[in-house]
Design goal:
Layout: H1 4-15, H2 18-25, H3 29-43, E1 48-51, E2 54-57, H4 59-85, E3 91-97, H5 104-112, E4 120-126, E5 147-151, H6 155-158, E6 161-176, E7 186-187, E8 196-199, H7 206-218, E9 223-226, H8 233-240, E10 245-249, E11 259-264, E12 269-277, H9 282-296
Parallel strand pairs: 3-4, 3-5, 7-11, 8-9, 8-10
Antiparallel strand pairs: 1-2, 5-12, 6-10, 6-11, 6-12
Helix pairs in contact: 1-2, 1-3, 2-3, 4-5
């Protein structure tokens, strides 16, 4: 789920030099340097301080290191559950996983309900957040993998997929590092006066439409704009270098090292859950029923 450049970045940070990282990774120092240059160019930020004594992280690099390490740890925890639960005779459930949809809510259920899920083994299958559209979180659902776990507030998705809601994810705001509000740990509507808020596409989510309507009616001094499609990492890259505030979620708080996710003085939240085919396999139907039984207790 993590592309090689990020794994190389962690090794460079841990070892303190390109040459030491190259020995650990069994590649050339030049290849390590090229990967780090490409990563910095893609993000538009400097992650590493280079000097004759070695390499150390910039503040942005430190935040990226923390975020990527957490994602890897979550994935490792998930894989440990897979190894513990998975047996040859068990039904395999393939879970699509990406940077923004790593499957963490299912991992939490597996940790606490191992006996109820003993008839299944699990396999993580990587997919790109670039696949997410207004009509579908991924066209690979039901073919390459059985389900995705993540936000499920898009009206368009319900026309093509089944959804089992697992809970609610609170809306937050992501503040760019160069924004005057960056030092705040919580925002009020007074803080937002005159600010521009970036929200996902209009007319795609009842929750977001209600939120937009409320803000426009009660707080007309706040400027609201919408993205053309649902979020991927490029959306965070774009607004990390702006003066706009990006609507985000608790579950996405570590996506970008140059953005700080903070609470807002509101109660808006949207559902997350398991998204699966309208014509699921027998094993998937059985799995969903088990999850429903767990959630109903």
């Amino acid at each position: 789920m993590i592309v090689q450049m990020y794994l190389t970045f962690l090794k460079v940070a841990d070892s303190g030099s390109f040459s030491k990282a190259s020995k650990i990774l069994f590649i050339s120092p030049v290849s390590v340097m090229k990967q780090m240059n490409t990563l910095e160019n893609q993000l538009g930020i400097r992650l590493l301080n280079r000097n004759p004594r070695g390499i150390n992280l910039t503040p942005a690099g430190e935040r990226l290191y923390t975020g990527v390490s957490k994602i890897i740890q979550d994935s490792t925890d998930m894989l440990e559950q897979v190894q513990q639960i998975g047996q040859i005779e068990k039904s395999e459930i393939k879970v699509g996983a990406s940077i923004m949809r790593p499957g963490t809510p299912l991992m939490d259920i597996w940790k606490t309900h191992k006996s109820a899920l003993n008839a299944y083994k699990f396999n993580l299958v990587s997919f790109s957040d670039d696949d997410v559209t207004l009509e579908s979180p991924s066209t690979k659902i039901g073919t390459s993998f059985d389900c995705i776990v993540g936000p499920c507030d898009s009206d368009g998705w319900y026309n093509h997929y089944n959804v089992l809601k697992l809970g609610m994810d609170s809306f937050r705001l992501a503040i760019p590092e160069n924004h005057p509000l960056f030092t705040k740990d919580k925002l009020t509507f007074a803080d937002l006066r005159g600010q521009t808020l970036v929200l996902p596409p209009k007319s795609q989510s009842p929750v977001l439409d209600k939120m937009t309507s409320d803000l426009e009616e009660k707080h007309p001094e706040i400027n609201i704009i919408h993205t053309l499609n649902f979020y991927n990492a490029n959306v965070f890259n774009r607004y990390a270098n702006s003066q706009d505030l990006l609507l985000t979620r608790d579950s996405w708080k570590d996506i970008h090292p140059l953005m700080k996710t903070v609470k807002v003085d509101w109660d808006y939240a949207s559902p997350y859950g398991i998204i699966y085919s309208k014509s699921p396999s027998k094993k998937m139907e059985s799995f969903i029923q088990v999850i429903k039984n767990i959630e109903s207790k």
